[in-house]
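thread: overnight batch results

M.L. [08:02]
morning all. the overnight job finished for the chain we discussed friday. pasting input first so we're all looking at the same thing
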Amino acid sequence: MTRLADYFVLVGYDVDKRGSSDGQGRILQRFPEKDWEDNPFPQGIELFCQPSGWQLFTERQPPTFFVAVLTDINSERHYCACFTFWEAVEDSQPQKSRSGEDDEDSGIIQPAQMFAPKSLVLVSQLDHTEVFRNCLGLIYTVHVEGLKVPLETLIGNLLTCFIPIAGGSQPGLDEKEESLRTITLGAGDRQVIQTPINDSLPVSGCSVALLFRQLGIINVLYLFCAALTEHKILLLSSSYQRLTDACRALLSIMFPLKYCFTYIPILPGKLLEVLCTPTPFIIGVSSFFRSETQELLDVIIADLDGGTVTIPECIHISLLPEPLLHQTQTVLSMILDPELEVADHAFPPSTIQPSSLKIQDKEIRAVFLWLFAQLFQGHRWCLHIIRVHPEPVIRFHKAAFLGQRVLTEDDFLMKVLDGMAFAGFVSERGPSYRAIDLFDELIATEVDRMRLEEGNPHKVMKHIKELAEQLFKNENPYPAVPMHKVQRPTEGSHLRLHQTTFPHLDEVTVQLFIDHAAAKQKNEIPAVKSEKKCMVPSGPPPDAIIDSNVLANSARRLEVVRNCITYIFENKTVEAKKLLPAVLRALKGRAARQCLTQELNLHVQQNRAVLDDQQFDYIIRMLNCTLQDCSHMDEHGIAAALLPLVTAFCRKLGAGVTQFAYSCVQDHSVWTNMQFWEAMFYSDVQNHIRALYLEGNENEEHSQEYKSALEIASEQRRQWPMLSKDKQQELIQKEESTVFSQAIHYANRMSYLLLPLDTSKNRLLRSSGLGDFESVSNSYVTNSIAGSMAESYDTESGFEDAEGSDVANSVVRFINRFVDKVCTESGVTNEHLKALHLMIPDIVQMHIETLDAVHRESKRLPAIQKPKLLLPALLVGEELVMEGLRVYLISDGRDEATGGIMGGPPLLPAEGAIFLTTYRLIFRGTPTDPLVGEQVVIRSFPIASLTKEKKISVSVQMDQFIQEGLQLRSCTFQLMKIAFDEEVASDLAEVFKKHLHKLRYPQHVNGTFAFTVGQSFKLVDEHKHKEKNQSLRTLSKNLVKNAKKTMSRQHVTRKKYTPPTWENRGSLQSQVDEDDISVSEEVDQRSLTLSSTIKSSDRQTMSNVVERACCKDYQRLGLGTLSNSLTRSKHEPFRISTVNRMYAVCRSYPGLLIVPQSIPDSTIQRISRCYRQNRFPVVCWRNSRTKAVLLRSAGLHGKGVVGFFKSPNAPTAGPSQADSTSLEQEKYLQAIINSMPSYSDASGRNTLSGFTSAHMSSSDSSDKQRQPKIGALMKQVMGSKEELPGTFSRGGKWGSIRGGGLMSSYSPDIATRLAGKDTSSPQTNGGPSEAHFVQQQRAYLYIIGDKSQLKGTKQDPLQQWEVVPIEVFDVRHVKTSFKKLMKACIPSCTSTDPNMPYYRCLEESEWLCLIHKVLQVSVLVVGLLDSGSSVMVSLEDGWDISTQVVSLVQLLSDPYYRTMDGFRLLVEKEWLSFGHRFSHRGAQTLASQSSGFTPVFLQFLDCVHQIHLQFPMEFEFSQYYLKFLAYHYVSNRFRTFLLDSDYERIELGVMYEEKGERKNQQVYKSVWDYIDRLNKKTPIFFNYMFAPEDGEVLKPYSFISNLKVWDFYTNETLSEGPSYDWELVYGRQEQMDESDRQDTSAPKSQRKIIWPCYDNRSKVEPDAITKLFQEIQSLEMELGQVSEKWKDMWDKIKATQRTESKLESRHSLSSSLLMSSNLSHHRRSQGMYVKESRVGSSLNLSMDSESSVTATPSSGMGRGQQSTSTLYSQFQTSESEHRSFEGILYKKGALLKPWKPRWFVLDKTKHQLRYYDARQDKDCKGVIDLAEVESVIQGTPTMGAPKNIDEKAFFDLKTTKRFYNFCAQDSQNAQLWMDSIQSCLSDA
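M.L. [08:03]
and the structure it wrote out:
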C-alpha cells in the first residue's frame, strides 16, 4: 500500500515582492509540515505552479488544472497536481504599473482592484491525474460554495488515503478489494481508484492517441526514434496539461525501455537556460516562450498546437530499419484511419469507425510493443551472466546480437543498443529469476507467430488488437464499476464579485488526522505485495530467426573447406595447394568461416596441435584470410572462435623453441578492440560460472538436457534465500576467484596477440578501425617471418601518452585498462585487483623474452618455397641486363586471359619474374591458380616499343596485400601490369626503371640493340667499336666531304645557301628566303657527269648507290638505264639523274633520281628550293600500259605557293628571281607532260583524238565502265559538291606575273569532265560518248595537294595540269589516334563505364577513319593513272602521307609489288630511300623522345592488310608477313628501319655493310635477309592462295564498314609470347617435340584443347596445306630421306596440276571455280574454306592466272608419283592432222619471268595453241584456247627481249584474260604465225 498524496501545499502570490520586475509566488501552507522519511518535500514547487511567471490580472480567470512532473536527486519522479484560481488583491499603489504587465500602455489608468493567482498543490509519487483533479476540485468547491465541511477534514482525509500500487496479474474475487479502492474525503463524495494489474506497464489514458492526433504518424515516429537515439526534444503548446500528456505518451510508447535523461514536461520560464544543457532531454515549454527557443541549433522542436516537428539541419535522425518502418506505418495508419483502406471501394462498408480514444490509445501502444518485440527478439541469448551471487551481474553481447540478426550496418539499432536506456533495460530485465510482464511473454512465445504474420497487415492487426486488449485490461481491470461521485462548483462561480479568500487552515487539526493514520498503520501488519517470481523464458534463439537463405548454396563451399583442411593434416600438399585458392575465396562467406573454426577444432588435442612448416603456412593463410574479413566488432564470433586455436597451432623452430600461430595473425583490428576482449572475457567467465554450479549437481544433471547459464542462474537465485550465511559466503568467494583466474588468463592471451614478433620495432597498438591500414605481408609469407614485420608502426595507439613509450608499456597499459573495467564490473576484490596490476608487467616481460627466441629462430628458417624462376630463352647476342625480379603479372582490361567471356581457366594473375634484356622486356611465370599451375605464361615486347610507363598500386587478389607496381605499354599492342613481390626491395625496382629508361632512349641510334647486339651491355669496348667498318666509315666521310664541296662550287651571289638542319626540317617556311638567293645558271659542268666528280677510291661507293637506289626497278619500269658509259639514248623521256649523288640537293632523297630527260641538273637544284625540305618532284613509277607516271614531292613552301599559283598583289616592273624559278617549275611539269605518249600524239593537233584513238580503243570495256567512278571518288576525297567550285582548281601558269592578273572564269564542271560524264546526254552503258570525251578532255597531270596550302589558287584553262586539293590529316592526329586505339585494344583495366564499350572506344580513336582516308586517296590516284593521266602527290613534307599514298598506289597498280621481292623493293625504295623518318617517328633515341611515337608505317601496313583481306589471291605474301614487319619495324632488332634517310645511314657507315659477309651467322642486320632465310625454311610468309591475274589493278572498297580491325592489335599468345622472333618460339618448339617423342609408351589422346589467347592457333591447329607439308616432312624423316625444300615441292605440285588442268575439258567446273574473272572485275574475298577430313584432304588450289584446278593429292605426291590423268596422256598420239602449224617462238613469261624459247603447236582441230619445253616433249606446258583470243597484232620489244632481232618479229596475242608477247626468228616467220592464227579465228 502507498499514500495517494504525500503533501498538500497552498501556494500564493507574494505580495511583499510585488515591486520587483517579476512577481513571485510563495508557499503559504504545507501539510504535513515535517518531511516524510521515505519521501522528502520537493523544492521549487512555487515555480511550477505558474510556469509562465506569477502575474496580477485585472479580471478573474477561470480555475485551471495541470500536472507538473519534478524529478529528484534519486531520479524519482514527483507528480505535482496544480489547481489554480484567482483572488482579489487590494492594490495600495495604483500609480505603479503591475508586475508582469509591462507591456500595457502606460497611458491607461490602472484599475484599483487586481486579481492574484492561488494554487492548491498535491504532491504524489503516483500518477492518477483524474483522481487529483477531482480531489482538488472538491476542496475548491467546498470553499467556493461554502459547504459545511471543514477544509481541514478534507485535507486530512486526502493525506491519509492509502491505495495499492498494483493488483494481481489476474484479480480474483479476494483480490477485488486490492485492485479497486474506493476513497472519500468526507464531503459526500466517492471515488473508485483502479490500480493497474502490473505496475511495470505504463498507464497512458488517452495521451498516446492524442499525441498522434496532434502530430501525425510520421512526426511521432521521428520523435520516437529521436528519443531512443538520445536527441534533445522540445515540445511547445499553449496548454500545460497537453504538454504533460504528450510527454507521458512519448514515454509510454518507449516501453519496455525507460527514458533516463532529463524529463520536464512543463518547464517554468525562469528555468529556460536548462534548454542549453549538453545532455539529451524531453522538455515541454509554453508557447509563450516560443521566441526564446528559436536559437537552439541542436534541438528537435515539436509544436503540438500546429502539428509540426522541426528538425535542425545539423541533426540526422536514424530511423527504424526497413521493412519494420514500413510495417509500423501501415499498421498505425490502419488504426488511426481505418477508412483509408476502403476509400477507393465502389461500395464502402457503412460501419467503419475508428475505435474510441481509450481503445485507440492502447492499440497504438500495442503496435510499439510489437515493434520492440521484433527489434529485440532473441536478445536474451546474447546475455552474459558473470556473477550470480550476491546480486546478478549481466552484460549484453552487442556484436553477437547484431551479427545474428544481420543488422550490423543498421545505424538505428546500433545507437539504441549503445544507449543508456538499453543499458537500464539489460540490468532491469536481464536477471533470469524475476516477475515477468506482457513484453517478456511476447518475446518468449509470440516470436514465431510474428514471423509468420510478417507481410500480412490484417494478421498483424489482429495480433495488435489482442495486445491492446491486454493493455486496456491492465489499466482498467473493472471497467463496469461506477467510478466517481464528486461535487462540482456551479457554472460561473469564479466570476462572483464577492468571494472570500481561501482561509488559513488549522495545521494542528490536519496533523492529528495524519498522526492518527500513522498510528493505525503501525498496528496493522504491513501488506507486502506478493511478487510472483519465476524463471524468465528466453524465447527462440536468434539463429532460428535468421532466414535460411543466408546459408543456401554454401554446402559445396563448406565441402571444399573441409576437404582442404583434411588434405593439409594428411600432408597431401599438392591437393591442398589446388584447393587453397577456392578456400580463400569461400572464406569470404560467413558459413565457410564458421566451418573452418569447427574443422580446425577437431584437429586440436589437449590444447595443442604441432604442425610442420608447410601445414603451418597453409593454416596461417587460412586464419589470416578468415580474420581479414572479420570486422573489428567480430559480430559473427569468428575471431572469438579462433582465439583458442591461435594459441593451439604451433610448429617447432629449434631446440625448445616453439612458434605459435598467434605470432602470425596479429595484424587484424579486432585484437585492438576493447569491446571484443570484454565480450570474450564475459563469455568465458559465464562458461566457468556455469561449470561451477553444474559440478555439484552432476548426477542429477546427467540425464537432463542442456541447461543455459541463465537457467542455472535462475535456479540459484531461487535457492539463494534458503542457503545459510556460510554457504552464501562460500559461493561468493568461488565466483570471485573464478573471475580473477579468468582475468589472469586474459592478461596472457592479450599479451600474445598484442606483442609483435619483433618487439624491437616500436609497434604501437592501433586504435584505427578496419580498413585504415593494409595487412602486412606476414598474412602471406610465414616462413620468412624475419622480414614480415619490416614496417615501422607510427600509428597512434589510443593512449594519451603513447608517444615515446615502447611497445611493452603500451601493451601493459592496454591490459591494465581492460582488467580495471572487467574486474570492477565483475566485483573482484581490491586485493585481487592490486595483485593483477603487479602481475601484468611480469606477464608481458616474460612473453617478450619468449618472442625474442622465436624471432631469432624464425630468421634462420629457409625462405618460403616460391615458384622457381623460369629463365627466358634469349636470342643470339641478347643479354640479360639484370637478374629477374620476382613479380606478379596482373590481369588488365582484356578478359580473355582471366577466363572472360570465352571461359577457360584464369591464366592471370601469374607469378614469375620480369627480365630486362638488351632487346626485350620479358615476363615468364606460372598462373597463381593451381588448376593451371603447370602452364607457363610468357608476355614480352621489345624495349624499343615501350610507349608509356606508369606507377600503379596493385592488390594481388590471392593474398590481399597491396603492392607497388608498374604498368608498361608497348606499341606492339602489349600491356604488362606487374606488381613487385615483397622480396623485391624498392631500390631494386628503381634500378630496374632506370635501366629500362636508359635502354628505351639511348643517347644515339648506335646504342640501340641492332647496333649493340653481341656486345656486352656493361662495357662496350670503345676500341673495337672504332675499328669496325673502317673502310665504310672513310667512304661515308668522303661522301659527306664531297657533298660539302659540291655545294661550295655553286656561285652564290648574295647569300650562301645551306640546307635546313634536322631540327628545322619540320617547319613549313624554309630558312632560305628566295628573294635573297641568286644562283648563277652556269653551274659547274663537272657536277653533271658522274665519273669526273667521284674519285677513283669512291667509285665502289657509287656502284653501291646505283644498286641501292632501286635502279633495277626503274629499268623494269622502263624509266631509264644507267650504263657504264653513262650515255643516254635521247628518245627515252626520263633519265636517272645523279644530281643528288652527294645528298647536296636534298638530304632525305636517295642518291639517284628519275627526272625528265630534258631538264638539266642545274634547273633541278633551283626548283628544289621551292619545296619543303628541298623534296622536289621526282618520278617513282610508270604505268606500263598508259605510260602515265606517278611523281612524289613535298608540299610547296608558303612563298612557293604564292609564286606558284596565286596572283600577285601588285604588278612588278621587271622579271624577278621568283619569276624565273616559276618558269623553271612550269618547264619541269611541262617536260613530264611531254613524256606521255598521249600528249606527243596530240601535240600539234590540239585535240585528244590521238589519245582517244590510241588508248581508248585498246582499253577494254571494263576500263570504260570504270572511268565515271573517278569523278565520284574525287568528290568524296575533296568534300561535298558545294565545296567544289572554290577549292578544286585547274593548275595554271607557275608564275602569275605573265598572267598579268587576268582572271579567267572558272568552269564548274571540272569534276564532271574528270569523270568523263556528259550531263546533257546520258549514255546507255554509262560510258562517255566519243565526241564528248574529246571536248571534255582530261588533264594530263593531276597534282594532289593539301587543301590548306592551296586556298585561293587561280586556274588557267590553257594549261594541261590540274590541282586536286584534298584534306589531309596531320601526323599529330595519327599519334593521338594511335594512343586511343591502343587503349581500346589493350585497356589497362576492365571498363566500368557502360557507355564506353570496346567498339565505342574504337570508333572514338578514329583509326579506321584515317585508314579510310589514305585508301580513298590512293584509289583515286590509281584510277587517274589507269585512265592515262599522270599524278603528282605533293603533300606535307613528302615523307609521311605522301609515302603512304605513293606506296599504296604502286601496290594497287602493279602486281610485281604484291610479290615478296616486289614488296621488299617497294619498302626499300619508297620508305627507306626516300627518307621516311623511322627513328624520329618511332622516338628511338633520347633526342626524339619528346616527339612521341607516330606509327605512319604501321598505318601503311594496316592499309595493305585491308587490301589483302579484300584480294586474298593477289598477294604472294601472307598476313603474317605484314604482322612480322609491323612488329620488327619498332623492335630495333634489325638495322633496316633505323635512321631517317640514306644520307644518315651512309654517314653512320651502315648503308652497305648488310651486303658484306656476316661474322656471326645468327645475327642478322637486315630484316630482309632474315625473312629470306626463314622463307627458305618454312612457308610461314607464303600465301597458298596466291593466283594473280596479269596486270590486275586492285581497287579496294575503303568505306569504314568494309574495314576490319587488324588482329595484330588484339591477339596474343601467352604460351610463347610474340611469335615474330622465330628462333625463340619455333627453336624451342623443336626441342620440346624431341622431348615429347622420347616418351611414346603412354597412349596419347587425340583430343586437343585450344585456349584462346594462350595457344598459338596457327601452330596447334595448322591449315590443311601446312599440315600436309608437316606430314611429308615427318615421313621423309622417318624414311631417312633428304628433306626437300617446301618451295620446290610446291612448284612441282603447281606444274603437275597445271598440266592436268590443260588436258581436262576446258569447260570443266574446276577451271572456273575460283578464277572466273568475268563475274567481277575485282576478285574480292568471299571467304575460302579449306576443309580437312579424316580420309584425305580435298584442296582447292588456285595456282596461277591461267587456270585453277581441284585435285586430291595422295601421300606420295611430293616425290613425283604421276596422277592418273598424266598416265592417260602418255597414250595419246601426236598425229600430224592435229599439228596444223608448229615451230619455235620466244614467249615472255608471266610477271617478272624472262623470255624463253618454247615449241608451239597450232592445233586447228582442237582449236588451241599448245606449247612444250622442247619438240620431243610429251608433257604440254600450257594451252591457249583460241576461243578466248580477241586479237593478234604487231608488237614492240619489251625489257629483257631477245637481242639483235628485227622489231617486226614481235607480235602480241590478246585473250580475254591476258596479253601474250611472242617473238619469232624474223619478221616473215612472225607474219606466218599471225596469219595462221588469224585464219584459225576466222574459220571459227
